[in-house]
Amino acid sequence: MIFVTVGSRGYQFDRLFKKLDDLYEDGTLIEEMFAQVGTSEYKPRHYEYKDFITPEEFVERIEAASIVVSHGASGSIMKALNAGKKVIAVTRLEKYKEHINDHQIQNNEAFSSNGYVLMADLELTNLGECFKKIYDNTDGLRPWENKDPLAIVKMIDKFIEENWRM
Fold first, then answer.
1. Cβ proximity of 51 and 35 under 8 Å
2. Which long-range contacts (CB under 8 A, 24 or more apart) does 26-34 make?
3. What is the DSSP string of 33-78?
4. Contact present, 33 and 2 (Cβ < 8 Å)
5. Which of 93, 108, 128, 157 has the greatest number of beta carbons closer than 10 A?
6. What is the pLDDT along the chain (166 residues), one digit of tens a residue?
7. For residue 148, what is the DSSP state?
8. How many structural domains compose the chain?
9. End-to-end CA separation in angstroms for the chain
10. Using an 8 Å Cβ cutoff, are 41 and 72 in contact?
């Protein structure tokens, strides 16, 4: 099962849910999917969804999933990695009114550059390829084994320091 989570903030992520429906229509995706769609207006046609779920259901959905698709919130990504799941990170962008700024780019790039997640490109054009890499076992992902609660903060800080100098 695939679990998709986009958080509970008041920003839509319609283009992600449309793209996922497209991937069902072209045959890339065939397995069961559940999506937590938040305040998105687009209503999926090919998979089950709810606007919001409880924290308990969130944990249950992650545990049941083989793949987690997560927006660039480090908490959601970390919960999936700590549960040993394959993660595809998708980035909410300000220009599409999906967030107040583009900070998720740095979060997703930090996880991706360290080999913990597959990051879909910013326009989601390679999202299907991300799924195919996981299905073909060519994703090259490393398991998250760091139990330091500050590890994620340190990793993102280091990435930003090395790659986003002003």
1. no
2. 26/128, 28/128, 28/131, 28/132, 29/2, 29/128, 29/131, 31/1, 31/2, 31/66, 32/1, 32/2, 33/1, 33/2, 33/3, 33/4, 34/1, 34/2, 34/3, 34/4, 34/61
3. EEEE-TT-----SSSEEES---HHHHHHHHHH-SEEEEES-HHHHH
4. yes
5. 108
6. 999 999 988 999 999 999 999 999 999 999 999 999 999 999 999 999 999 999 999 999 999 999 999 999 888 999 999 999 999 999 999 999 999 998 899 999 989 998 999 999 999 999 999 999 999 999 999 988 876 666 766 777 777 777 765 4
7. -
8. 1
9. 41
10. no
Residue tagged 């660039």 (tokens): 72
Domain that holds residue 65: 2-163
Tokens of 129: 């390829």
